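Q: Hi! Curious about what Putative gluconeogenesis factor looks like structurally. Here's the sequence.
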Amino acid sequence: MSEPTHRSRETTEGPAIVALGGGHGLFATLQAVRRLTVDVTAVVTVADDGGSSGRLRAELGVIPPGDLRMALAALASDEPEIVDWTRTIQHRFGGVGALAGHSVGNLILAGLTEVLGDPVVALDEMARLLRIRGRVLPMSPIALEIEADVQGLEEDPRVSRCIRGQVAVATTPGKVRRVRLLPSNPPACPDAVTAIDRADLVVLGPGSWFSSVIPHVLVPELVESLSSTNARKVLVLNLAPEPGETAGFSAERHLHVLSQHVPDFRVDYVVVDSASVPAGREREHLQRAADQFSAEVRYADVADTSPGAAHVHDPAKLADVLAELSSSAAVGDSTQSSLQEQQSEEQRENASWQ
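A: Let's find out. The predicted structure is below.
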């Protein structure tokens, strides 16, 4: 088999960007950042237990492939001969037989994992097939489960019930208060940790808040890497609350919930769609919530307003914002470096004079 498709920093054009998430939110982020660089690493949640992914996970013991497949499709080459492959891996079988509902790409990933014996090697091989110039990695090398404390399911609204499974958490009619991963303190994918360590920009979100975004900060090695990396960290908020998981949530509430799960987490920027938070007191409350992360809130038009689009980020608009933040980060780093050099020179002069 071929070598992994990632490339060294010395031979890469553009900043090294890591995007963390899952599902359609990560798909939009990846379509945005691929416009900025060829050095893209997707770090994907592996807790899905529904549909084709759930069936393959239960029957074969593989990590759920659905979100990983979506990330591969988002980064696939636009070359005409690859477009058909991308459409094929996204194709879902119809009918009523054993294959009904399965995605072709899910089956290929499951098969490659069994043949090659390693899910990361399987992902690298499919990335080679799709001529991806970045990488798609699982956040953990093992399949995980999501468990949530949910209120509003009992007669006493103050009583919480424990709900297990990503689908159950995403569709609960109650209010999710807290989520955990099973097993607790799971291992991180080593290559994902390395990618974060060497990144210039890390993007978390948008996506299902409790099942695609927060799980990343519940993996100890990922949190440690996110805390120690020199990369600029950007948190992209959803355009609207999601039925079930975050029904009734304000933008401010999204940040409070994240902070409750990882109190010491820090990001540099929180990207918010301008139309989703009106000017005034609501923005003041949001900035106070962002202060918990020592973050600056950036408002921008990032929504897809085309007919039929519902609460979806526009990749081109999001790319523009991330490019600006990446550039300002580079300028900031350069300025800081210049100040440090100036201070060092002044210290040398003072030492010489003394």
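A: A fun detail: Residues 1-11, 330-354 have pLDDT under 50 and may be disordered.
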